[in-house]
Known about the structure:
The protein is an alpha+beta fold. Helices cover 29% and strands 20% of the residues.
Amino acid sequence: MHPFAYTRVSDTREALKAGSAGGRYLAGGTTLVDLMRETVERPGTLVDISGLPLRDILVTKEGGLRIGALVRMSEAAAHPAVRAAYPVVSRALELSASAQLRNMATIGGNIMQRTRCTYFRDVTADCNKREPGSGCAALHGVNRSHAILGTSGHCVATHPSDVAVAFAALEARVRLLGPDGERVVPFADFLLRPGSTPQREQAVRKGELITTIEIPALPRPLESGYLKVRDRQSYEFALTSAAVALHIRGGVIREAKVAAGGVGTVPWKLPAVERHLIGERPSDALWAAAAEKATEGARPLRHNRFKVALLKRTVERQLRIVGGTK
């Protein structure tokens, strides 16, 4: 680990000042500190924001949710309002990391975490995320865990967050506070596909601070859930995952929100699947036909071709779990 300065702030004004001067924000530290140990990240200054008042979970008058950026993952998963309104969020959090990490890690930090690609974390390997222009060792290396959607010739790493998949499905928004004031970014625009600049992973400007993640109100009744397929039952990242929310009224699907994880360079929204569901009646045949559209645009690599079929099965299974059959 390289030497660094440390400062602790008590209000957002201090935080923005320190962040604008080049400091890196530190909350739970469960990702950043690991990367510093491995010398992947070398910040000159850490700005401890854990004392800021960004820990509320509020139900909006419209019926949506606002989750403070410093709410711990375990707190959000267990919160009655989250569990009642959006079980998909609770379940995604419960299937993340370990209990100890969930007690430390924050919601804001979770969506800001960097890839678990082994080449990114190996400072001797070529990685355009870590060192732009050096190449991507995963393209022709061992790429079983890598992405099949949203990739480029510069990067094929997956985004590791589970709850980000739920946020993508629910079309959440990220509220940011920076030197130029406050702004709101749709979740679909917050995490960036690699393109030719894989080192730029989030739409966060210099000095900006995540304050809140907002989930909009959706029609009721709403059934939702999260399914994660992985090599082992605990403390493992997804090979594939599916976040599904369905509004079924009068026996017809009126609203469908679907996203996949473990397969994209960002949490992957599945609009073709959603469109296939709207206006239809739940059935096994419908779930299977809709899931076939989950892999449109997929570009599998040498070792992860199995993810194409696995993603379809994951989406189909979760649609059946959430929507039932008739």
